[in-house]
# Entry
Amino acid sequence: MRAAGTYVCGESMEKVARVGVSIERELLAKLDEYVRLHQYQSRSHAIRDLVRRALVEEQWDAGQEAVAAVVLLFDHHSREISERLRETQHDAKADVLSTLHHHLSHDRCLEIITLRGSRASIMATADRLRGTRGVLHSGLVVSSTGEALL
Ligand code: NI
# Structure
């Protein structure tokens, strides 16, 4: 049985190591400002997040399996845009996990398409989606399957 307060971001204290880190005072001041600005609960919380972010970036650069969200803003009156976006998802090189459609206004739609696969397959699908005629703005957020992040 675990006592209350023995969890750090869902991990039990048994898995957590405490380490001492040497850091320049000025850099530490910047870290503390970063912690405050981004509303982390502690320096440790911010450092864990930064390490995981670096790992996700490294995995992406190494071409390992990843999960990504493509955000597309478009005018649904654009000729055949909905059909084209749907066709791309059916032909996708990456797995399409989900598609979320928001009717923003009479004209504008926002879709969030979640993809899973290698960097190459995600980029191939994302580029085709983003390059579809009628897309007004797009974004790509890359994350991880989470398995290698603990
Ligand atoms: Ni719509």
